[in-house]
Amino acid sequence: MKFRTTLILLIIFIGLLAFVIFFMPKKEKEGPAEKLTELPSSDVVRIVLKKEDGTFEFKKDDKGEWWIASPLEAKADNYEVNRLAEEIASLRIERIVEKEGKDPAKYEIPKKEISFWIKDKNEPIKILIGMENPLDNTLFAQKEGDLRIVLLSSYFRTMLDKKLIDFRQKDIFKFETSDVKAIKLKAKDIEWSAQKKEEEWFLEKPVNALAKKYRVEDVLNTLSNMRAKEFIVESKEASDLERYGLNKAEYVVGLNLPSKNQEIIFYLQKKDDKVYATTSTSTKIISVEDYVLNDLEKKVEDLREKQVASFYTWEANRVEIKKGELTIAASKEKDNKWQVTGERAEADSSKIESFIRKMESLEATEFIDQPGQLKDYGLDPPEIKVTIWVKGSDDKEKEYSYLIGRENPEKKQVIIKNPRLSYLFVVDSSFLTEIPKQAKDWLIQEEKKEEEKKAN
């Protein structure tokens, strides 16, 4: 019974498919859409948009940047105004309603008006906008000097409905994060400062320690990319700072930009379910998204670098282990295979790279910030010294050393010192099993060679 039903359905489907293929009329290929305007958008230098809620005016400066000229003077969002310029410079006609529109008022034309100027032209091009077509949300419109009444796309209606803040530059506190060389942050019960040395960030307070570069940069990027939800005050006074709690802000971040000879202090305060922000170099007070505060509330332990040494295993080209009188060394050859120093036999590259990867991933479970005498930890001299040389994309070789002290077998911990840092790392001691006892441990064993021969 099931087979018969399936067969009947299949026959009906084939019949319908044949009808669609052979009898349904084929849609003719459409030609290029007719345009109400067709000009290079880059030539648009001024736009005036008149709407029921006011008039917006935008002007392009000599550098090609857009500015709001009315109802206030402010930097515009170049992306948004350029989108508007592109739309009005190439307005597609959805349909011609009347070839000779003798009574545009019946379409409520002009309900809105958009005028734009092309460079080197004194007179504007005007587009008069009427009511919305209830059938498909298109807009009735007429170009000044053109008798036709046309319908414009619903997307254009969306552009016209934008508010002034949509066209305004919102990242008004933006700065180049690479210019920042020092930062001081206070956020509720959190307080720390850090300084950049070459390409690394170092915490200075409340502890001297290497910081996670990306964590500090998260704070800088959050501040630089902070966008206004609302513009609260255009030209702030002391009374405005008091009104929004910024005179005693819970979040204060000071940035030093030596190359710009500039010091910027950010003030942020949460009040009445809003986050208000201003800076020492701006006249404005804005409101911003709540999430901005998340990166500012990172504790020192979140900022501190836990990795003993930070490098990439695949960039390592030499490794050396010293334990008492024993020295084991290996280097990477041009074919990316490893060679153990003083040994003719083939090195087990996977073992060597596994060891380097283990060293790369070593992280502190805790720190000893004021270690005192290194001999108390078995570090003077160290039980083991591991040195790894890394050659990065700049072809410069960097050296990373690990001074390894005595193991605490009960806690399964060992203390390590990075010679370039003043403090010590307490790490899990399981990596010690990866350290070879002799150079031959890094060579391919006979049994492994036999297995490889059989596999081939």
What oligomeric state do these chains adopt? single chain
The coarse overall form would be elongated
CATH class of the largest domain: Mainly Beta
Q: Give the neighbour order of strands across the main sheet.
A: 4-3-2-1-6-7-8-9-5
Number of strands: 26
Would you kindly provide a written description of the structure presented here, covering whatever features stand out?
This protein is α+β, with helices and mostly antiparallel strands and 456 residues long. 20% of the residues lie in helices and 34% in strands. The model is unreliable at 18-30 (pLDDT under 50). A nine-stranded antiparallel sheet has the order 4-3-2-1-6-7-8-9-5, with helices on one face. Strands 13-12-11-10-15-16-17-18-14 form a nine-stranded antiparallel sheet. It has helices at residues 2-22, 78-89, 154-160, 213-224, 238-243, 292-296, 300-303, 349-360, 446-455, and strands at 44-51, 54-60, 66-70, 74-75, 93-98, 112-118, 125-132, 139-143, 149-152, 182-187, 190-197, 200-205, 209-210, 230-233, 251-257, 262-271, 274-279, 285-288, 316-323, 326-332, 338-340, 366-368, 384-391, 397-408, 413-417, 424-428. The protein folds into three domains: 41-167, no CATH class; 177-303, Immunoglobulin-like; 313-446, Immunoglobulin-like, CATH 2.60.40.
